[in-house]
Each structure stands twice: as C-alpha cells, then as structure tokens.
Amino acid sequence: MKKSIFLLSAAAGLSLSAADPVNLLDNGGLENWKTLTTPPRMILLKDNLAPDMGTQGGLEGERPNEPMATGERDETVKRSGKYSLKITNPSFDNITKVLQYNIPVEGNTKYIFRCYVKGQGIDRNQGKSIGVWAGFNAGPDKTFWSDNKGTLFAPKFEGDFDWQKVEVEVTTRENDNRGMIQVQLRNAKGTLWIDDLELIEAPKAK
Q: How far is CA 52 from CA 26, 31, 86, 146, 157, in A?
C-alpha cells in the first residue's frame, strides 16, 4: 500500500517520500462531517451533525443517563483545520467517545496513536473517575470483540487546559489484522475538544 501511494505521488510530481507516515484513519483531522438521519447512541448532537468516520465508527455515548451528553462541530476552538469535535458531559455517569474500528493493520508491527485534547471544567469527581481516556487496540477480525489487546491511556487531565497531546504505542500480535482507536470523556463532567487524531505505523529502526 505504501509503495503504491509513493508511486502515485511521484507520478503527480509531489515530494512525498516512501518514509513519510500515512495516517490510517479516515477522518483524523475531523474536517469531514455528516448529517445523521437517525440519532446516535445516547448522545444529543447539535444540528444532527457528527464526524464522518465512515461506516466503521463515529460519535456515541454509553449508558442511557440524564442529562445526556452533547456533541457538536466547533468552528471556533480547534487545533488545526476548520473544525474540532466538542463534547460535553453534564453528569459523572456519562461516557462519550469518538472511535473508528475495523482499521486494517499488520501483525507483529508497532503502531503509534496520537490525538490532541483541550478541556474546560473537567471534573473527575475528586479523582474517582477516569476522565480523558484514549488509545488503540488490535485483534483478529473474526474474534476482535472477544480478543483484542492494546493500550488505553488516562492522562488525568483536570480543570481547564490548553491543547495537550495524548500518545500510545502498541505492537500488534502475530494474528492481529484489525484495529480500533477511541477517545473518551469517561465518567467525568466538563467539556472536551478533540482534534488531529492519527494512527501510523512506527518508523522501523535502520
């Protein structure tokens, strides 16, 4: 796949090299949005807009709690591009996440997942809640939901903070061929902005 991308770029007169990392996420910059005809799981969306992660992911909530979490496209607060994703949890019971799954990956390969988050009034209930939680898991496609391994990292951000990078490295197992990334605001109150999600294959040592 990388070889094909390089050849096409070279034919177009671009300077992309074979060593440049390729983002494996469909909409990592969160620039593409779609209007949903049916509401997502347990979350309220402004103007029914959601980040377009294809048919293999999106924005959703867990647990039918009231008041419900909200999600929206933000044109004012963003790290790059035109938009970021803004999610707000009004209750400690809410879990809100953006995710993409069924990402093709290779076995015995190291991957780096990173994203950037910005917070306002993030309250982890005196440290009892996880708060920001992000990471990458991989597994075999036929048994992924019962057999996946990876890293979900909780940096314990609280209160108000400017854009911070969250990054994990995961080496897939021999039979892993599907991956999933997610970024959550988990059982914490407050507003979280998410931008610039990236999943790349780690550079190999020379």
A: 8, 8, 14, 26, 27
Q: Which tokens hold the place of 61?
A: 């909530």
The torsion angle over the Cα atoms of residues 103, 104, 108 and 113, rounded to 10 degrees, is: -30
Read off the pLDDT of residues 122-134 as tens digits, 9 standing for 90 and up. 999 999 999 999 9
126, 79 Cβ separation under 8 angstroms? no
Is the bond preceding residue 67 a cis peptide, omega within 30 degrees? Answer: yes
Backbone angles phi, psi at 133, to 5 degrees: -145, 125
Q: Token pair 């914490």 is at which residue?
A: 188
Helix and strand tally (H, E) in the chain?
1, 13
Whether 13 has a pLDDT exceeding 80, the answer reads no
For residues 78 and 85, give the distance between their C-alpha atoms in angstroms, rounded to a whole number.
8
Neighbouring residues of 11: CB distance < 8 A, sequence distance ≥ 6: none
Strands of the sheet containing 159-171, edge to edge, are 44-45, 70-74, 84-89, 189-201, 110-123, 159-171
